[in-house]
Amino acid sequence: MHNILRRLDLNLLLTLDVLLAELNVTRAARVLNLSQPTVSLQLGRLREMLADPLLLPGPRGMLPTERARELRKPLSEALAALNSALSPADAFDPGSSNQTWKVAASDYATTALVWPSLRRIRNIAPKTRLALLNKHPLDLASDLEGGRLDLALHIRDEAPPTLRQRSLVHERYVLAGRHGHPAFQSKLTLKAFCALEHAIMSPNGAGFTGTTDQALAIKGLQRQVVLSVPNFNSLISALTHSDLVAVVPQRMVQDEAALHVQDPPLVIPGFEMLMLWPERLHRDPAHMWLRDLIASTVETTSCLRH
Question: What are the boundaries of each domain within the chain?
Answer without folding.
Answer: 2-86, 100-171+272-305, 173-269
